[in-house]
Amino acid sequence: MRYAALYLQDEWTPQQRWLLISSVRWDYSDVFGSKVTAKIGSTYQLSRNTCLKANFGSAYRAPTASELYIDWSHASYAYIKGNPDLRPETALNFDIGLEAERGHTSGKLSYFHNKVKDLIDYEYEGVTSGLYTYRYYNVDQAVIQGLEAEAKQRLGDKFSLRSTYTYLDAVDSTTDERLANRARHNVKLMLTYDDEKESGITVTLWQDWLLNYRYELGTDSGVTHLNTLNFVINKKFRSGLQAYFGVDNIFDKRSVNLFNDGRVWRGGVKYTF
Prior knowledge:
Blueprint: E1 3-15, E2 18-29, E3 33-47, E4 50-61, H1 65-69, E5 71-74, E6 78-81, E7 89-102, E8 105-128, E9 131-155, E10 159-172, E11 177-178, E12 182-194, E13 201-217, E14 220-236, E15 241-248, E16 264-271
Parallel strand pairs: 6-9
Antiparallel strand pairs: 1-2, 2-3, 3-4, 4-7, 5-6, 7-8, 8-9, 9-10, 10-11, 10-12, 12-13, 13-14, 14-15, 15-16
């Protein structure tokens, strides 16, 4: 597969408080041809500490090599197959939000609405060698919309508390059924320590809640939930080197319906030059 893209963006300030950002993108692949999309975004400063943001545009995504050709079994849970007949996704996207800050407190509230054609998802198609088998396919028409909220509070010089909430309504427009493998409510609460030094340490402890998660596992479907506690520490070095170590799902909670295998230890390094 050969792929190329060209992206142009312009930033314009009609007034001191008003910023407009317009962009256009051309995508090409030797499998799916070419597509042009465009987007316009606006930020208006309502006051010194409050701004209104809005974006409207089109979007395009060609299937990945994995979505087209994957042939993979996940432990004892499922067998996942690609689909070489997939069509690219196209969408019209809109969002509007309000951001404000005062002293050590800041917050955001936004609404998003995405109308998607040929959404790439996966569906159950039977049992292969004792494993539930899923195959990628295109949802003809889908609407994905919701609300996002965020609040952040500085706690002294080095600590901060941040919370986020997402309400998601994802529906197959043809059948009017809720799309699977998505949570209706997603909540995060994060406590962060940052010494703000050039060669410093950042530590984050956060709790995740997935609530009213709609799953499909074989012929069984329903809603479930999962909450996990997670931890990560990042260390910066003067040479441009960074290292991190973390534990996801500290209390080793497991969920077959969410394909969650339990605790995950992770670590890595990053070098910037």
